TrEMBL record, chain A:
The gene is Atp5f1. Keywords: CF(0), Coiled coil, Hydrogen ion transport, Ion transport, Membrane, Mitochondrion, Mitochondrion inner membrane, Transport. It comes from Anseranas semipalmata. InterPro entries: ATP_synth_Bsub_B/MI25 (IPR008688), ATP_synth_F0_suB (IPR013837). The keyword Transmembrane does not apply. The keyword Membrane applies. Residues 110-137 form a coiled coil. Belongs to the eukaryotic ATPase B chain family. This is ATP synthase subunit b. One of its GO terms (cellular component) is proton-transporting ATP synthase complex.
UniProtKB/TrEMBL annotation, chain B:
Keywords: ATP synthesis, CF(0), Hydrogen ion transport, Ion transport, Membrane, Mitochondrion, Transmembrane, Transmembrane helix, Transport. This is ATPK synthase. The chain crosses the membrane at residues 53-72. One of its GO terms (cellular component) is proton-transporting ATP synthase complex. The lineage of its organism: Eukaryota, Metazoa, Chordata, Craniata, Vertebrata. It comes from Anseranas semipalmata (Magpie goose).
Length: 228, 84
């Protein structure tokens, strides 16, 4: 909301858009005398009045030599004839060319205006689309909330798994320790028993056992020979 | 309307001295008058969509006549006859 101290746009005259230029200029006869002069004299002298006036004036100036005929007159006559011939011959073409230039300028300005209008229209449509999109905000936020909930859940479960693994590792360690201890005790006992038994074998017993083994082997070889 | 606000063309012949009396002949007034005349001439003959050569040719003709008038004392010496 614009807070202004003074009222604006209160005058009647509005300078934009400017009024267009008039199509044709004031009428001029013979390129020198405005039409208003002929209209001014028409009520009193009719159509030929201004021409009579012109002829009379010309003869007066010539006869009283207020207008002196000298070399400048000849030069003026030549220049004027060339100029008038040029204008009569090429006037229409130059006018068409100038009209074309004007037309191009106007077309360019119009195209700028139309482009601006089109761009603004597309901007309006996009704005409307954005406004429609805003209505879907709730779905977007629901999806985001679900995402976050899932993330939290996944994190929680991950940590739960970690805790479970850690606890299992500690318990496994304890079990392994106990097994190891028992096995070591077993091995040690076995070794101790074997050592004692080996120590208790006296040389006498050793000779007897060797002799018994030899006898057994002879018996076995005999039975093997018989079998073959 | 009132005399001072009418343009020259709308003033009757008998009222001409009175109308001249109401004119503003100070330098600013004269300058304003000249500017108004020039701008009205331009808007009538030059600032139009389809202008013609007449707009410029009238200015050139006026210039020719003015310069002839300024040099008249010199041109008088080239007269063909002494008595008219």
């Amino acid at each position: 909301v614009l807070h202004i101290a003074r009222p604006i746009h209160t005058s009647q005259q509005c300078l934009a858009p400017l009024p267009p230029l008039p199509e044709k200029g004031g009428e001029v006869r013979h390129g020198l005398i405005p039409e208003e002069f002929f209209q001014f004299l028409y009520p009193k002298t009719g159509v030929t009045g201004p021409y009579m006036l012109g002829t009379g004036l010309l003869l007066y100036f010539l006869s009283k030599e207020i207008y002196v005929i000298n070399h400048e007159t000849v030069a003026a006559a030549c220049i004027l004839s060339v100029i008038i011939y040029g204008i009569k011959k090429y006037g229409a073409d130059v006018a068409a060319f100038a009209d074309k230039l004007n037309e191009e300028k106007v077309a360019k300005a119009l195209s700028v205006k139309n482009d601006a209008i089109k761009e603004l229209e597309t901007a309006i449509e996009q704005e409307k689309k954005e406004q429609w999109r805003v209505e879907g905000r709730s779905y977007l936020f629901d999806a985001k909330r679900n995402n976050i909930a899932m993330l939290l859940e996944a994190n929680y479960r991950e940590r739960l798994l970690t805790v479970y693994n850690e606890v299992k590792k500690r318990l496994d360690y304890q079990v392994a320790m106990q097994n190891l201890k028992r096995q070591k005790e077993q091995d040690h006992m076995i070794q101790w028993v074997e050592k004692n038994v080996v120590q208790s074998i006296t040389p006498q017993q050793q000779k007897e056992s060797i002799a018994k083994c030899i006898l057994d082997l002879k018996a076995l070889s005999k039975s093997a020979q018989v079998a073959v | 309307g009132p005399l001072s606000e009418r343009r020259l063309m709308d003033v009757r012949l008998g009222e001409l001295p009175m109308w001249l009396a109401t004119c503003d002949f100070s330098p600013q007034g004269l300058l304003g008058g000249v500017q108004k005349a020039w701008s009205s001439y331009c808007n009538k003959y030059i600032n139009v969509k389809r202008g013609r050569a007449a707009g410029v040719s009238m200015l050139l003709a006026g210039y020719c006549i003015l310069s002839y008038g300024w040099n008249y004392q010199h041109i008088k010496c080239n007269r063909w006859r002494k008595y008219h």
